[in-house]
């Protein structure tokens, strides 16, 4: 069938998607395929552009797979049929995971995110446009980038800006006025310097994605270059800032 300029896209019958349950306030559902244990995610999409760009981006191991489209009962518009990420969002993983998030995994996740951004920019010429921890999912202990509803092609003027639409408006203003999260105690010093460079107010002063990957590859997974510790006052302020960052758009 033809949707969003794409000829080969599979349409799934809604009768084959059972045990539908809402998993997000954004119109996202989980459903079983027929009477199997296979779970798909059903997501309402904004327009045909989202289907087109989701399909274009399909094919990287760190991007949620697009399987096809369907129409839910009583709905006229199509919904995307997507891969299910059993680990949930990165935000919920950071908040609720009972297994310690060790440095080796932190570094690996950062490399996976940077790698998929490079792939989108250089090989697909796609700007994601809404990169935040609710659009980064965890599946089988790996990163999966999702939600291309705000994405655009490089040459397009349709861009949501560096902060994306998933950042709360009040927080957006604070960030634009210079608010930055304090480094977390015992974080690798080179890693801290890297993400502080990425926070530079002037875009021209930020490293490009290839420079980010090069820096990440230079960091030891053994975390043998620990950053300085903080005073109790600094640590308390860091917690306040961290809570502000995590509380937006839940």
From TrEMBL:
The keyword Nucleotide-binding appears for this protein: yes
UniProt entry keywords in alphabetical sequence: ATP-binding, Kinase, Nucleotide-binding, Transferase
Domain Protein kinase residues, every copy: 1-250
Single GO molecular function: protein serine/threonine kinase activity
PANTHER family: MITOGEN-ACTIVATED PROTEIN KINASE KINASE KINASE 20, SERINE/THREONINE-PROTEIN KINASE TNNI3K-RELATED
Name this polypeptide is given: Protein kinase domain-containing protein
UniProt organism field: Rhizophagus irregularis
